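I'll show a sample.
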Amino acid sequence: MHFQWYPGHMTKARRMMQENIKLIDLVIELVDARVPMSSRNPDIDELGKGKARLILLNKADLAEERMNDEWLAYFKGKGFSAVKVNSKKGGGIKSIQGVIQEACKEKTERDRKRGILNRPVRAMVVGIPNVGKSTFINALAGKACAKTGNKPGVTKGKQWIRLNRSVELLDTPGILWPKFEDQTAGMRLAFIGSIKDEILQTEELAAELMKFMNSAYPGVLEEKYGIPAFEDPYEGLKSIAESRHCLVRGSELDTEKAAAILLDEFRNGKLGRFTLEAPEA
């Protein structure tokens, strides 16, 4: 599988970020807790140079708790503020306002010395498509003020959102980098649904996921689907089709449907909590 996906609106989003970064005090970057490194856009480090930084491990409830803590320690070690959140259910959201103020303490202090009081912190919310930016903003603001959708690329233009007197947020469309230098990163993003499924081979992707699960979480798929141990992922896919009664034309196994079920249940946490990568030593 070769991953390369950079629609025109992504180029536009990058340009928009470049134009607006001068108005910003803090860059809030959402990453997916299951793939914190693969779901980071390297452009953002370049664009956010000299700004306070906050990394949110979103969908933390879908990742292993032990690994969440390892990733928080890793990002804090790099000088970022970092918090784990679950925007959908509101986990960790209450602490964010305080974390924002803490991350921008130096800027607030500088303002105070120059006689500028009560100027709101302006934060830009960034992240790749489908990482949950709009859901996070809605949870933080307590109302549906940013469009949400579970398809990558729902947020098309920028919008300012005033949270309260002390924080204003700038929502931006999700941006991916032009090309995945590391195809493994592309694969991991495909596993969690950050790349549109229409451009991928579902069965091939499911087979790759089964290979990963077999080596990183042995026995989990066999137990969850009540299937025999397998070495060949395509045989495993047939077993899932059998166990879930995925049939076409009466008795033929529908492995494509089985692949879609596996990917869906992996992505929504029905299979359990998994982290696909560990911090570099």
Observations:
- The radius of gyration is 20 Å.
